[in-house]
Amino acid sequence: MNPSSTTATLVVRHQVHPQHEQRYETWLHQTIEAASQFPGHLGVDVGRERHGDVLDFTSVLRFDEMQHLQLWLESSARQWLVSQARPWLQDGDNTEIQLGKDFWFAPREADQAPAHWKQVVVSVLVILPLSLLVPVLWRPVFGLAPWLAGYLMSNLLITLSIVVLVVYLFMPLATRALNPWLSADTP
Fold it and tell me: Are residues 68 and 10 in the same domain?
């Protein structure tokens, strides 16, 4: 597969001392707004964790292709923004690029990913209601357009609707809302 046509995800990890939290939050809002102006930008999710005297921020930026992510990553706008925040960052500007997948659970390190059972619970909490609701919402359309109501076409439309809602809306919301539980040190 051509890397330029593959979804690209940038994970940015920053450690911030609590005395700079408000300044960093303002900076983060400005950075998200700036990134959203770049071509191919698909969205940003931010996770926040507190570890003693340090706040860990994990920002997951998604772009439609690697070329667009590179435009943002190498832009003078991002360079200027990072230079503004650098005095507040305890461990610098740590970035990681993932190609070909939009992932929901962005661990700090591979051994710190949420427990598999937690990932299953969150996935069920997101997918089960949609799998019950989406077919009901499509029913009136199938009544008006019987050619869409066939077994293959109706399942294709229902599955596509659920996948799009999970990937772009509900899973990012759920992982953000449940981040403290997902990152808690339970087996």
Answer: yes
Give residues with Cβ within 8 angstroms of 148, minimum separation 6: 141, 142, 154, 157
187/179 Cα distance (integer angstroms)? 15
* 3 has a pLDDT exceeding 70: no
The helix (H) or strand (E) run that includes residue 10 is strand 8-16
pLDDT band at 114 (very low <50, low <70, confident <90, very high): confident
- CATH number, residue 23: 3.30.70.100
Overall average pLDDT of the 13-19 stretch: 89
How, if at all, do strands 41-51 and 94-99 pair?
A: unpaired
3-state secondary structure of 95: strand
Regarding pTM above 0.70, the answer is: no
